[in-house]
Amino acid sequence: MTTSSLERLRSELRQLAEPQVRAQQERVLSPADDDELLGVRVPVLRKLARGYRELTLDEVDALLRSRVHDERFAGLLVLAEQVRITRGAERTSLVDFYLARTDCVDNWDLVDGSAPVVLGPWLLDESLEVLDRLAGSASLWERRIAVLATLALIRADRYEPTFTLVLALRRDPEPLIHKALGWMLREIGRRDERAMVSFLDRHAPELPRITVRYATERLEPDERARFVRRR
């Protein structure tokens, strides 16, 4: 694709913007003062990204460096499309590109929309050391990337990396991390409730209350209360 393709994507984003969606974004995202919100729905962004997966990395970089929130999201989803159709060294290059630009992944929706589908698939065949590095970062968003990336592992029935991160980050100061930990535990429970319950039996008293509440949302009320009372 050419620069005209990039400009066409930007034009389409503005055409797809909805004022009521932008108002909702302003309420739930707490954007930085220099962020511009357009108000494009996430399913619409995903559909748009599929049509622009031939963008070059320079063009994706231009989107990620934009102060338009929806452009950054679109760039991440284009990158996810490229990861989906590549393997080996080419996929590793895309993941390296992503990890070098985590400063652009600067809100919870950008993390949640990209980490499981950009970094996550790569982790299935590669070293998990990057999770330790991200989890130890001073950046809230890098720590959340580490947690959300394990969703791909959970879907492959590999739960230990998530359990390890839950324990490593249990004293994190940020509620957004506590919620993410609980969410991933709940995802484990959707696939293997026994594994999640066994983990909580051992560790619930040392976990943040919100983590336990998120993790146990799908349990029977009596079983859920058993864990929540311990927090």
TrEMBL record:
CDD domains given in the database record: AlkD_like (cd06561)
InterPro entries recorded: ARM-type_fold (IPR016024), DNA_alkylation (IPR014825)
Name of the molecule in the record: DNA alkylation repair protein
Organism, as annotated: Streptomyces asiaticus subsp. ignotus
